[in-house]
Amino acid sequence: MEGQTNNDFSARLGQAMNERGLRQADLVRMAASDGVKLGKSQLSQYLSGKTEPRKATLEFLATALGVSAEWLSDGASDAPAPHVLSGATDAPTPPEMRQRETPLASSGNNTKEKESAMPRRQFKKSSKLDNVLYDIRGPVLDEAYRMEDQGIHVLKLNIGNPAPFGFRTPDEVVKDMQDQLTECEGYSNSRGLFTARKAIMQYDQLKGIPNVDVEDIYTGNGASELIQLAMNAFMNEGDEILVPSPDYPLWTACATLAGGTAVHYICDEKANWYPDIEDIRSKVTPRTKGIVVINPNNPTGALYPREVLQQIVDVARENQLVIFADEIYDRLVMDGKQHVSIASLAPDLFCITFNGLSKSHMVAGYRIGWMSLSGNKRIAKDLIDGINMLSNMRLCSNVPAQSIVQTCLGGIQRSQGLLVPGGRIYEQREYVYERLSNMDGVTVTKPEAAFYIFPRLDPDKFHITDDDQFALDLLKDEHVLITAGKGFNWEKPGYFRIVYLPRKHTLHEAMDKLEDFLSYYRQ
Ligand code: PLP
Q: Are 333 and 303 in contact (CB under 8 A)?
């Protein structure tokens, strides 16, 4: 900070904003909620050095940025530079500094008091998160929220959350939860209610998943909680797990957070996005312990045939790997195809199959998922102890949501009507696929399941090198929000995921806008 003068006000302001991770829109919002008049154009003028704020605004900015008004105004401070600016972000505030904290400048004479900058302890995220990525709800979405705050309508094609798009939970399900609510006040067994697990066990039996007992089933607050739990129980530092690319990024994130390494195997666009078996083989090392298979797949919408699954099982068998099967979309399959559970092909291996009601019953907000341990459980006794320990530690999953599992898994599956000609998901897929296929420079594989499509932009035409920039530019120009391929641990730039849950008229508008954007956009 030494050597800065009044002329550097804008630099100090910008620097403090950077350090705090605050953008102009954030400060404008904070000012509004504090009753301080501060517009975006005003703030831009401060940042560009055109004007400086009046005392009241300066004091607001100083407080919001965790620095002293005096430092912000003229760079003066007889205290060490504020933490926010020093980079010593994790250090607690020493007591002697705390004592020197004084109110903002209020000198009664002309001599400005040299007040100490107010040192503020800053909290950084854990370094465990350094290599963790979850862009589906990342910075581009933050920008979309900012735009919405300014009254801009954004067409969101980014999150696989059925309810906001008018997919309603069947009345019977809501009624059953309502009726059971008073019985769901206490913690349940940490694995879950017996009736829920029994229904899941029977579902697993119908899918041919071998050797699953009620005790082998764990309910969770969505499959997400159990993915994290399983990775924590399974991975040691240095362990490797094979994860598809593109993937549903929670898998890579959880494996990484658990201290392991996600090694990505390629799903091949030229082969309907099926896993490339040779690539899987080539990525196995002595440290490889498991393989994740996401089928049906998010983000590609691919449904793997039995032969492909059989080949994955062969590799797992040869290398003694645990199979983690994410099958949350198994009841959202189209074109008369049948979903095959990979665990049904591997009775001699240890498998954990993940599933839930978020997608099949459009109750993502209720938070109910499960995992089933199957096959050769003898080889995983110790791992199962670890899973039990972690399951007990979180006491249990949301009990009201467990109470509807039996209702949902039994009887007629209403979602089936959405997946055939005339049904919403089917028709929306047809529409989006058709539109994308007819756009110049776009290639796309027709998805057979779930509600995602993963198009590719011709590199010779669009020259996309930065996926995030593409997503941001599309958002800013056309107010359409998608998730860039990079968000799915997909290395090649120029891919993105569209969620085709919105109704056709919304998809129509979004496709028009995308087409218009692609007619001029180049990187
Ligand atoms: N697995 C996949 C492949 C998903 O796409 C999702 C959610 O989008 C999940 C798991 C998490 O689902 P849940 O709502 O059960 O946590």
A: yes
Query: Partners of 241 in the beta sheet?
Result: 262, 290
**Any ligand 1 atom below 6 A from CB of 511:** no
Mutate to test the pocket of ligand 1, among 295, 359, 368 (most ligand atoms within 8 A of CB): 359
Residues 375 and 351 sit within 8 Å (Cβ to Cβ): yes
**What number does the ligand 1 atom closest to the CA of 359 have?**
14
pLDDT at 113 over 70: no
Q: Residue 359 — φ and ψ, nearest 5°?
A: -100, -45
Any idea which of 159-168, 209-218, 280-289, 446-455 has the lowest mean pLDDT? 159-168
Backbone angles phi and psi of 444, in degrees to 5: -150, 145
Nearest ligand 1 atom, CA 224: 16
Q: What is the pLDDT of residue 45?
A: 84
326 pocket-lining for ligand 1 (C-beta < 6 Å): yes
Pick the range with the lowest mean pLDDT from 35-39, 213-217, 452-456.
35-39
**Which H, E and C letters describe 222-289, residue by residue?**
HHHHHHHHHHHHHCCCCCEEEEEECCCCHHHHHHHHCCCEEEEEEEEHHHCCEECHHHHHHHCCCCEE
Q: Are 245 and 265 in contact (CB under 8 A)?
A: yes
> What is the 249 CA–ligand 1 centroid distance (Å)?
10
Asked if 274 contacts 302 with a C-beta cutoff of 8 angstroms, the reply is yes
**% of the chain residues with pLDDT over 90:** 67
**Ligand 1 binding pocket includes 222 (Cβ within 6 Å):** yes
Tell me what pLDDT residue 116 has: 55
Instruction: Tell me the C-alpha to C-alpha distance, in Å, between residue 352 and each of 154, 181, 216, 347.
Output: 38, 30, 9, 12
Compute the radius of gyration of the chain from its Cα atoms: 27
User: pLDDT confidence of 99, banded at 50, 70, 90?
Assistant: very low
What is the per-residue pLDDT for 186? 93
d(Cα 342, Cα 345) in Å, to the nearest integer? 5
Mean pLDDT of 344-364: 95
Q: Residue 160: CB within 6 Å of ligand 1?
A: yes
pLDDT, tens only, 328-348: 999 999 999 999 999 999 999
CB atoms < 10 A from the CB of 224, how many?
A: 18
